[in-house]
Write a structure and sequence with these properties.
Layout lengths: L8 E5 L1 H4 E2 L1 H8 L3 H10 L6 E2 L3 H8 L9 E7 L3 H13 L6 E4 L9 H4 L3 E4 L2 H9 L4 E4 L13 E6 L9 H9 L1 H10 L11 H13 L6 E8 L6 H11 L5 E4 L6 H7 L3 E4 L2 H8 L4 E3 L12
Parallel strand pairs: 1-4, 1-6, 4-5, 6-7, 8-9, 8-11, 9-10, 11-12
Antiparallel strand pairs: 2-3, 7-12
Length: 303
């Protein structure tokens, strides 16, 4: 009987998102892929150091129980197949039960997200992330220099999301960009009971809630947070939207423009998603962070 992933949360990510391949990547970016392949092959028995998304992946895989797989993690990488040997060897070293991988030797791998039915794609390549988002897959560009996750909550996966253009559409953000803060507050107050349209990461938050409900109560847990620049009175529409979706978050931080980084550090998240580069850069000093290149704040680059 053919294998199927339809009943699992499928996460796809690049090898640089999972492991720290920054030194090796400098060779790759020098346009000498043969030297890169030889370097990776020479280091085949040297496990790569954990990368930005390592904690996220490690904790997600711990939701799997014998005979009841809930999560599938797939390597989806611009690496070559030879370099893929080291990736899988490193997974084995750390006890990461990752069995599937697609290695494209420099070609964009995002097109394989659809047959994988992936519900999240993490990569250091912005073009691949944008293509994934355009295809309807929640995706974020991992910042390799991000701080690594805290080990304060080993039995709890902690994920934080921005609101507008991430969990929600950028409808309200467009008003703010066009007319300013006062108009934004008036717009949101007038529509407080009207749910916001969904943003690119609503499906992931819903899938995480489903994973939590199916989890062993004595095993791994998930804790989520909404961390947004919104403040009262614009907070109400965000909360009511989540209620309308029948989706819960454990914490909500309405920061009114305060820097998010220190709040995220105290939340000790394993990953944070935001559409604003300044917020992602600020967060990356404290926690693993990824940029969601969606919405009005992220216009399509000129060709």
């Amino acid at each position: 009987m053919p294998a199927a992933l339809a009943d699992r949360l499928v996460i796809a990510l690049s090898s640089r998102a999972l492991f720290d391949f920054e030194e090796e990547n400098r060779v790759f970016e020098a346009r000498d892929d043969h030297a890169y392949m030889q370097l990776q092959l020479a280091r085949l028995d040297q496990p790569a150091r954990p990368g930005v998304a390592f904690s996220l992946v490690h904790k997600l895989l711990r939701f799997n129980r014998p005979g009841s797989p809930q999560v599938e993690v797939v390597i989806l990488s611009r690496n070559d197949p030879v370099s893929g040997l080291r990736v899988f060897r490193s997974c084995q070293h750390y006890g990461l039960a990752i069995e599937r991988g697609v290695f494209t030797r420099g070609a964009s791998p995002w097109r394989y997200l659809r047959p994988l039915a992936a519900q999240l794609f993490l990569s250091t390549n912005e073009a691949d992330v944008r293509s994934a988002l355009d295809a309807g897959v929640p995706a974020a560009r991992v910042l390799p220099h991000s701080a690594r996750a805290s080990d304060a909550h080993p039995d709890e996966l902690r994920i934080a999301f921005d609101g507008d253009a991430v969990l929600f559409s950028d409808e309200a953000e467009r008003v703010y960009q066009r007319e300013g803060l006062a108009a934004f507050h008036a717009h949101e107050s007038h529509r407080a009971t009207r749910p916001l349209p969904a943003g690119p990461f609503k499906p992931l938050l819903a899938a995480l809630q489903q994973l939590q409900r199916a989890a062993d109560p004595a095993g791994m847990r998930i804790r989520t947070a909404l961390v947004t620049a919104r403040s009262a009175p614009a907070h109400e529409r965000a909360i009511r939207t989540l209620m309308d979706w029948h989706i819960e978050v454990d914490e909500a931080m309405f920061l009114g423009g305060l820097p998010k980084g220190e709040f995220l550090r105290e939340f000790a998240c394993d990953f944070f998603f935001d559409d604003q580069t300044r917020h992602v850069d600020g967060a990356a000093a404290h926690v693993p962070a990824g940029h969601v290149a969606a919405g009005i704040a992220n216009p399509t680059p000129e060709p």
